[in-house]
Amino acid sequence: MDERFKLENQLCFRLYTASRLLTQAYHPLLGEHGLTYPQYLVLLVLWEKDAQPVNDIAKRLLLETNTVTPLLKRMEAEGLLTRSKGKEDARQMIVSLTGKGRDLQARLTDVPATVGGAVLCESVTPETVPSLFGMLDDIIRKLKA
Amino acid sequence: MDERFKLENQLCFRLYTASRLLTQAYHPLLGEHGLTYPQYLVLLVLWEKDAQPVNDIAKRLLLETNTVTPLLKRMEAEGLLTRSKGKEDARQMIVSLTGKGRDLQARLTDVPATVGGAVLCESVTPETVPSLFGMLDDIIRKLKA
DNA sequence: TATATTTGCATCGTGAACGATATAAATAAC
DNA sequence: GTTATTTATATCGTTCACGATGCAAATATA
């Protein structure tokens, strides 16, 4: 058996699996509030800075607008945000939080710590996390280019 | 702004993004042969050991059978594999490679090295990869439980 | 100013993921 | 041996991802 093709030697399979499992860990916490993980990411972006055009949100999440647009529409239908044409540029759709969308932050305060705690283990500790973040950031930076 | 909710402090967002971008790196290499990344994963599993029941493939990839079944059906339609009822247990569907599915391995020999090279950078080197793998494996192990 | 190009967003189609549910075969319990 | 439970797989519905394409507003060019 060719070593190169072993699942155990694949970085991508590990990232893919870790990402899926960690997203699943968010599921019960977010589902309680009717949120999916990508929707939670949109909220993170809007909590940092409200009233952004679709494009800025997509760029921040490194997603395409054809992924983000339907996502935003579902969130609009849930009453979490509003979408309105930009004043100075009519092509832009400005996405703004509603009161309901803003208030969710307070109701989700425990989520980061809960999920953070769920991954702490032998090799992943407050001391090693910076190194992990650094490697993942480098990979992301390299692949963006 | 609450530090805990910053995108930059989220492990999950990094894993999610790195996974997506790395999968995208596979896309041109696999698409040339009509494959998607999850289909490639199924081939990796079957190249290691041919003629496995659906459940074993799903367990190996840490996916549910309701994800794997349609995936396998598409691959069967492409002539990459066959699905046939198990002899000693009629509930099982045994998945076996066709000649076409087997031959793909030879045509994809360069894929692991090409993608591997695409992620090499400052902090991700042959020396640091074991540490990265170790942390991701620990995270996966922790979240599986 | 008329035309061409770019930009921002949306629509469409396909292929995952995954929760919930269904079905048939195998096994256990009675 | 009949009934109950478990197991292996499949079906269904919803939500992403994302390539391809469309369209209208803004900008650049002629």
**Stretches with pLDDT under 50, minimum 5 residues of chain A:** none
Summarize model confidence as the mean pLDDT of chain A. Answer: 97
> Which H/E pattern describes the elements of chain A?
HHEHHEEHHH
Number of strands of chain A: 3
- Inertia-based shape of chain A: globular
Briefly note the CATH topology name of the domain at 36-106 in chain A: Arc Repressor Mutant, subunit A
Structural class of chain A: mainly alpha
Description:
- The structure is a homodimer of 145-residue chains.
- The first copy, chain A, is mainly alpha-helical.
- Chain A has a domain at 36-106: Arc Repressor Mutant, subunit A.
- Helix content of chain A is 61%, strand content 8%.
- In chain A, strand 2 (81-85) and strand 3 (93-97) form a beta hairpin.
- In chain A, helix 1 packs antiparallel against helix 6 (111-119) and helix 3 (54-61) packs across helix 4 (65-77).
- The model of chain A has no long low-confidence stretch (mean pLDDT 97).
- Chains A and B meet through helix 1, helix 2, helix 6 and helix 7 of A and helix 1, helix 2, helix 6 and helix 7 of B.
- The first copy, chain A, binds a DNA duplex (30 and 30 nucleotides) through residues 20, 23-24, 27, 36-39, 53-55, 63-71, 74, 86, 89-93.
